[in-house]
Design a protein that fits this description.
The chain has about 190 residues and is of the alpha/beta class. About 45% of the residues lie in helices and about 15% in strands. It has a five-stranded parallel β-sheet, with helices on both faces. The protein has a two-stranded antiparallel sheet with strand order 3-4. Helix 1 packs across helix 2 and helix 3 packs across helix 4.
Length: about 190
């Protein structure tokens, strides 16, 4: 799927996942935050984007991840939150805009091992030079692995469908005439 992780990147994106209603991170979210903080503190990238707008009670994924990163020693000004996405595909779309505005080209994406392949595909699909930085996985039984694989296949299909629809919408938007008014020039009228 991908080569070795780059030694340096312009940014790290941490994908959101379930947060407890109390605001505490789940094991998966804690591992993602820890991996991102470790990379940041090692000087791998100067900035982190926490991505995830899903609410769990009063808690928003990206905000909970930001708080965990700051507690781990990442300066608050080094973290940007992306609060609109509800899916992996939307994580990629909305984070890509933040990354472009910051001038970030090479990006490390932090998520669970079983989720990283789809996440990288989605980020690359929206033009981000994305590289995986998977958090440590939790050992699970065979039934859970089968469920996760099925979930990833279904979500991949949905993400690809959403991407095709987005491309169709972009192609359907009328483009301004590069010559200016859109009307034919005097030269064109005489031909």
């Amino acid at each position: 799927m991908v080569g070795p992780m780059p030694e340096r990147a312009d940014a790290i994106v941490v994908l959101g996942c379930r947060v407890l209603p109390s605001g505490r991170l789940t094991t998966a979210a804690s591992r993602r935050a820890a991996k991102a903080a470790e990379a940041y503190l090692a000087g791998v990238a100067p900035h982190i984007v926490t991505s995830g707008g899903r609410r769990w009670g009063a808690q928003i994924e990206a905000e909970a991840l930001r708080r965990a990163l700051v507690r781990a020693g990442v300066p608050e000004q080094a973290v940007t939150t992306e609060l609109w996405s509800l899916t992996t595909h939307e994580n990629a779309v909305f984070s890509a805009e933040i990354l472009r505005r910051r001038g970030a080209r090479r990006v490390l994406v932090v998520t669970c091992v079983w989720h990283v392949e789809r996440a990288i595909r989605d980020f690359r699909g929206v033009g981000v030079d994305a590289w995986p930085l998977p958090s440590e996985g939790v050992r699970v039984g065979a039934l859970r692995r089968v469920y996760r694989r099925g979930h990833e296949l279904a979500c991949t299909w949905l993400d690809q469908r959403a991407l095709r629809r987005a491309h169709a919408l972009v192609r359907a938007v009328p483009r301004p005439d590069p010559r200016g008014s859109g009307a034919p020039s005097a030269e064109e009228n005489t031909r």
